[in-house]
Structures are given as C-alpha cells and as structure tokens.
C-alpha cells in the first residue's frame, strides 16, 4: 500500500510541476513578445518615417504591428502545442512505467518472523505424523526419483506387450511420491505447481494468485486426526508465506534453475539449508486440501462426498476422490488422466477437455504417483 501511495504522490507532483513550468514558459514568451514587438515597431518606424506622410506613418504602424502580432501569435501557439505534446507524452510514459512497476511488485515480501511462525506450525504437523515413523532416510523425502518406463511396468506389474504399448502412449515414466495419506495432494499438487510456474504467463499467474487471495479468500485450514487445528492468525501467516514462496519461484528467470528449486523445495522433509527448510511440501498440501474443498463446493455432486471433513485432516484420504478430481478439473480448468492399475492391466478415466493443461495421476488402491507423458 505504501508503494502505491508513493507512486500516486509522485504522479501528482510531476503534473503540478509540469503546469508550473508551462505557466512560467508562457509568461516569459509573453514578455519576449511585447519587447520584440516594441523593438520591431520602433526599428521599422525609424527607418521608414522619413519617407512617409503623417497619415501614411499611422497606416504603416498599424500594418507593421498587425504583421508582427500575427507572426508572434503563430510562434506562440506552435511552442505551446509542442510543450503540451511533450508534457502529455512524458505523463503517458510515466503512467505506463508506474503501471508496469506496480503490476510486477510481489504481493508479499520476506518476513523472518512470519517464516519462523510457519516453520513452527509445519514442523509441528511433521512431528505429529510422518516423523513418528521409523523408516530409511531415502523414503523420508516427499518426492522420489524419476523412474523409466521399464521400471514403471515392473512397479505396476504390466507384463503383456499389447498393454505395455497402450500404456506407453499415455505415460512413459513416472515420479515416485511418498506413501502417506497426503499422496493424492502431492501427486496432483506438484503437477499443478509445474503448470502454474512454467506454463502460466506472468499475468495468468498473478490473476490466479489474486483470485485465491481476494476473490475466493481461500482459507489455509488443516486439522490433525486428534482434531488439533490451525487458528485464524496462523491461517493468515500460512497463506502469506505460501504465496511469497510461489512468487519467489516464479521470479527465477532461468527455467532449469526454477524447476530444480521447485523439485528440491517440494521433496525436502526437513531443513537442509537456508534455501530449503522442508516446509514447502506442508504449505502446498494445506493449500491443495483447501482448494479441493472450495472446488467441491462448486460441484453439483458435492453431497455425494460423505466424508468431506477428511479433506482437511492431515494424512487422511477421501473415499470419494473421483468427485474431488472432477471438481478440481472443473475449477482449475485442467485435463486430468487417471490411470488405474489392477490385475496386470489398467483403466484410464478422463476429466475435463483435452485442450487445456494436463495432469496424469497413476493410482493403484491406496497410493498415487505422478505420471509423465511421452514427449
């Protein structure tokens, strides 16, 4: 708000300064006109008066004055027009540059106190859930490695050549997701953030963020199984921190660097360094659980989801996920392919139209992974 106020005051000051300079210039030209006209008349009269009669002198004075007056008026109007045009051009350029600057200003800046509060909340969630499990270090990461097609078939027990060929047309590799009750939101959320950060243009990205913040005012609520929830003040801090981190990622000019930082931030389960504190996954999961609730509310089938409350419970699956997927497809304008593996084969279900951004979800009972489309 302060930046906008300063820009507004700057515009007003420049306009007032322009008017003042223009007025000063006009007064100066008026004085020059009067002096030049007097000098010109005196000079002409002095040269011609000896050869003229009194009446002729008077007539000559009038003609000379009229000629000089017309010349000065023409020059005066010309100069005034040039000043006006330059003033308008300068004002227009300034206004345009101000609009561009305001448009590109991040909505939130770094805030150490806010970040510290968010880290405490997210680490509390981790301590109460995933950190209680004694597993190997490599399985603690929220995202695993990219796995090729041969190992994809092995993982999902696809043996027949015909089925392999059909599958390869849809999905040529996959990214492993940590197995917990948040796996759907990880598999879906990571892919949507890739769309948001790499396929959305800057104005589309900003419009999406503003929609989340100002139009639907998306909450950042989350509950633990023991019914512990996030209070309203914490909700606000989580929302601001998540948007700040998204804007920071979007601002990275090098696409490869941005992609690497998204992946590293999402998979981190604890603080690794100053860049990766392990909290981005938690913030993202809270975001996608809340946006699922909002999307579901726009769906005519929402009453069929009898365990709606599970959407806001950390590490808890929803038993009616297909309706949630359909809702997300409609609300976020996505084409979602759900590849369901069973009995050494698969079925594909589609949501949305094919002319929009695509997400591939691989599922077998109890777990989702991220599908990668063939290039």
UniProtKB/TrEMBL annotation:
<keyword id="KW-1133">Transmembrane helix</keyword>
<feature type="coiled-coil region">
    <location>
        <begin position="23"/>
        <end position="50"/>
    </location>
</feature>
<keyword id="KW-0472">Membrane</keyword>
<protein>
    <recommendedName>
        <fullName>OTU domain-containing protein</fullName>
    </recommendedName>
</protein>
<dbReference type="GO" id="GO:0005634">
    <property type="term" value="C:nucleus"/>
</dbReference>
<dbReference type="InterPro" id="IPR003323">
    <property type="entry name" value="OTU_dom"/>
</dbReference>
<dbReference type="GO" id="GO:0043130">
    <property type="term" value="F:ubiquitin binding"/>
</dbReference>
<feature type="domain" description="OTU">
    <location>
        <begin position="172"/>
        <end position="374"/>
    </location>
</feature>
<dbReference type="GO" id="GO:0004843">
    <property type="term" value="F:cysteine-type deubiquitinase activity"/>
</dbReference>
<feature type="transmembrane region" description="Helical">
    <location>
        <begin position="6"/>
        <end position="26"/>
    </location>
</feature>
<dbReference type="Pfam" id="PF10275">
    <property type="entry name" value="Peptidase_C65"/>
</dbReference>
<keyword id="KW-0175">Coiled coil</keyword>
<dbReference type="GO" id="GO:0071108">
    <property type="term" value="P:protein K48-linked deubiquitination"/>
</dbReference>
<keyword id="KW-0812">Transmembrane</keyword>
<dbReference type="InterPro" id="IPR019400">
    <property type="entry name" value="Peptidase_C65_otubain"/>
</dbReference>
